[in-house]
Amino acid sequence: MRVGDKTFRTIWQASDAASVKIIDQTRLPHEFETVSINTVFEAAHAIKVMQVRGAPLIGVMAAYGLALAMRADASDANLDAACGVLAAARPTAVNLQWAIDSMRGLLLTLPPAERAPAGFAHAGAIAEQDAVLCRAIGEHGLRLIQAVAASKQGRRVNILTHCNAGWLATVDWGTATAPIYMAHDEGIALHVWVDETRPRNQGASLTAWELGQHGVPHTLIVDNAGGHLMQHGEVDLVIVGTDRTTAVGDVCNKIGTYLKALAAHDNGVPFYVAAPSPSIDFSIEDGIAEVPIETRSPREVTHISGLGADGRMETVCIAPAGSGALNYAFDVTPARFVTGLITERGVIAATREALAKTFPERIGKRS
Length: 367
Ligand code: MRU
Description:
By secondary structure, the chain is α/β, with parallel strands linked by helices. The chain contains 12 helices and 18 strands.
């Protein structure tokens, strides 16, 4: 997608064919920097500190991390150790485990001498597949936006999104944003309400930035404003992403998604979830009981970072010294509040039946 007058993906194999390049998302929106990832440990670190984040991109980073591990030592023992290091990086997005399972399954069938080149090729294929899935989600979601636009007869379509399920969270296109980019490129008058998404502000720093780079009209709002806007008819539909959707359609996504779904339900606003199949965990059903929810540092709640008046990045404390803070990174929206799942195979109901009919080969499986 666009960065200034150039096009970028979020991750790519470097020209030395021995390392991987990423956009360092901890520097956005104020600095655009790319970073080289040379080892599995650097890959796990990039996931942990959120230089790369977003469920699909976490999976792709893990896949390349295993390829890098095989370059260093292609033994079974090192493959197992590398899988463990990556799996421990972040617990909630199932794409991480999905990608590890896919890579491990292939690499174990190969003699050690073939593992590094095959690993890079497979990681590249996973990255390419992610872009293909997001584009398909875009095409299916576009029809939803076209239908709303037709009913509004030229008045702008207002879409609310939470966190960043944009191209920065994937390899290209994004999940929730793919239909938005396509509708915008088609000339549909639309506008996006961007939840700031405390505590790490992925909406403010990432979604607003990437929409701006593509020229999509948007307005940043505080996380608590969505309900008010819905009550006043200012939101036509909500589209969010997912870190793990269960076999019955419960949706785990960034903390605060559930409250948006409740507000949407109360106001009759359609609430859609863009869900590529690697983000669907068919091995679990009850999202609230079964999805592991990441708890991050309380410091992300008590402190906030941004650009200071002198143009340098600053971190300031916003809480009294001594006050405790709790930082759950995700929550679960029960399927009954989800109008539909926008998958690469079409827009489907968030139900066990629809999911099983659409992805019969995945029934009961995590990957
Ligand atoms: O903590 P993050 O920034 O990794 O959380 C990202 C989200 O919650 C996204 O909505 C989700 O991963 C879907 S990305 C297409």
